[in-house]
Amino acid sequence: MSEVQLFTDGACSGNPGPGGWAFILRHLKSGKELVRSGGRRETTNNQMEMLAVIEGLSALTRPTSVELVSDSTYVLKGIAEWMPNWKKNGWRRRENGSWKPVKNVELWQRLDELITTHTLKYTHVRGHAGHPENERCDSLAVEECRKISGK
Q1: Which residue in 10, 20, 39, 78 is the catalytic one?
Q2: Residue 57 has what DSSP assignment?
Q3: Does the pTM exceed 0.90?
Q4: Helices and strands (H, E) in the chain, number of each type
Q5: Is-catalytic flag, 9?
Q6: Which residues of 30-66 are buried (b: 16+ CB within 10 A; e: fewer)?
Q7: Under CATH, what is the fold of the domain 4-149?
Q8: What pLDDT is stored for residue 49 in this prediction?
Q9: Is 106 assigned a catalytic role?
Q10: 112 tagged catalytic
Q11: Is residue 138 among the annotated active site residues?
Q12: Is 127 or 31 the better-scoring residue by pLDDT?
């Protein structure tokens, strides 16, 4: 059983453009939560989705059993399915019969470091479908995006 649940989301206004990320880290036994958010001026939605997970896992101070709950198929499939092959192939991927560098490789490599420290279980939720923590993370990420863009 997981010790913590990590709920994450990212948002971007334009792609690229100003973006925000947010996470809720919940300790299951105590119910205590750590909530954080932030943003970047020039980024993409996928980068913000990844950064939310990176920031959430980085907040853990010891190896932990984590249920990662996200609406990002890109992040969840990237970690669970694609990353092992990217690593095996020197952080490259096949595209139209030739090798291409993995996009966002620095973020993927940071995620790779973090997931080797923890035991992860992955749960996909549909975005904007009423999942309370996902909606809360989305609101926080959108607010960070608005702060940066001045809108």
Answers
A1: 10
A2: H
A3: yes
A4: 5, 7
A5: yes
A6: eeeeeeebbbbeebbbbbbbbbbbbbbbeebeeebeb
A7: Nucleotidyltransferase; domain 5 (3.30.420)
A8: 97
A9: no
A10: no
A11: yes
A12: 31
